[in-house]
Write a structure and sequence with these properties.
Elements: H1 8-14, H2 17-33, H3 37-42, H4 77-87, H5 92-101, E1 106-111, H6 118-127, E2 131-133, E3 139-140, E4 150-152, H7 160-169, H8 182-193, H9 199-212, E5 217-222, H10 226-236, H11 242-276, E6 290-298, H12 303-319, E7 323-329, H13 335-354, E8 359-364, H14 380-386, E9 392-395, H15 405-415, E10 418-421, H16 423-430, H17 439-444, E11 449-451, H18 456-459, H19 463-472, H20 478-490, E12 500-502, E13 507-508, H21 524-532, H22 534-550
Parallel strand pairs: 1-5, 5-6, 6-7, 7-8, 8-9, 9-10, 10-11
Antiparallel strand pairs: 2-3, 2-4, 12-13
Amino acid sequence: MSCTSSTLPIIAVLRAPAARAALQQLVLALALVLGLSACIHGGGSLPPSGPAPADVGVSTQELPGEEQPAEPAPLTGPEKAAAWLEAHRDRPTMLRAFVERMPKGADLHMHLNGSIYAESFIRWAADEGICVNRMTGALTDPPCRTREGQVAARTAFEDPELYETFIDMVSTRNLERSPQSGHARFFAAFSKIRGVGADGDKIAELAARAADEHVQYLEIMLTLREPQVAAIGRKIGFDTDLASTRQALLAAGLAEEVTRARAELDSITRRARTTLGCDSSEPGPGCDVEWRILQQTIRTLEPAEVYAQLVFAFELARGDARVVGINIVAPEDSPVALRDCRRHMAMIGSLSRAMPEVGVAVHAGELWPGLVPPRYLRSHIREAVTLAQARRIGHGVDLAYEDDPPGLLELMRERSVLLEACLTSNRVILGVAGDVHPLEEYLRAGVPVALASDDEGVLRTSLGTEYLLAVTEHGLGYRELAQMARDSLSYSFVEGDGLWTSPRRLQVADACAADHLGSDEPTPACAALLASDTRARLQWRLEAELEGFESLPWITCQVPE
């Protein structure tokens, strides 16, 4: 990787822990000089300005001919927020309050079922008359087989031990008490909750939670019509002539499955809006959260079934504006996924070239030494970028073991391929966290990054927790957090060209170049852009919310004159 700037060595030095600590102290000292000490240390009001008390012995009169130093320029909103964060790095409660309230843009990597908390699943199971296994937590259709440990799910609300056991078994809560690894416990959870609850209710839950977490936009992964599509794939079989196989699949009924999936999305959307009260006189906060769908493909099936799913996903995304992209999911370390990884990436690449308007995100590099033999760590991320033409990479944890990591980072930077960093997920499933995680290497190389929750319910996490880990385990500051929030919208697959002509440099589109970003009263040209461009509208809203956050009384205060 060629170094294009003489500043790279300086940046590398500043990322060292000792240098970072010194830099943080310098920022705090600057804040103190500017009169922000009271606000930084306690959030209280500043003492009144005026002359020093007489008993201190300090003269406030100017000496003849003495030139008074010019007052330093006041800190901007982002500078105040950055100084506040640096001053509170050793105060966990205040850091948590900071990241919880901070606007976060988008969550681009979240699986629908995995993002639902167990408490919702057991409630829905009770409403639907479903059974729960006392030992495994698995939810099954009635009748309940008592000899096999199954009881009515409603029993859990009268049996605290069963209720707590269920939550632990379908999540990674209390993982330290389990004989299972995080990897095994995590992936085992999904089969236990499959088919329970309505997708519209689930999306409503995610939207309501996103509003609470100050998230403006969601891209939700779900799998529509998977059994029917896989059956068509088995019927047609797999031929290495991908184009002709695609046409055969469509002729064999895949086109009709796309139509049925769109009708399902109509029903899901209506139910989500009804649950949130979006068409009522008092719509819920979740109604203000935009959401789109990524159609998932299960990578652990045979090639004919995987390709049928991928063709279906691309055709659905091309034909329905609510579906903005595709992803390929399920354990990357499964034998079939390892065997067929390169083939899967070639399938995606072929379809992406035929339908370039469809967003492509790929789970890649969610592997670690010991989980798989070393040879499987060398190429998955690169193949996702080069063969699949992925515009976003989910996880990317095994970067260090890829062939030519610096070259791969340069390639991702040049192609503007965003990393979806899922810190809690990587800690629980792979045991990779802190300095061992490659997050800082991606950032240092200039690769765009967005933090993501992955599976909030199963992992018992939140997007705020991911932001907190970025601060506490990776030493990131406010400017980096804000840039990642902006990048989450800039690199989303939502429709529209957006507010920025250059997202990394924050160059504003001509229509809004003369406006104050986030203003309630944009100029006519800017208002026209915002009305017609969903991405630009979301970005405008994020700028307004960031400015409001940076102006909170407990983050900033009036500097004495």
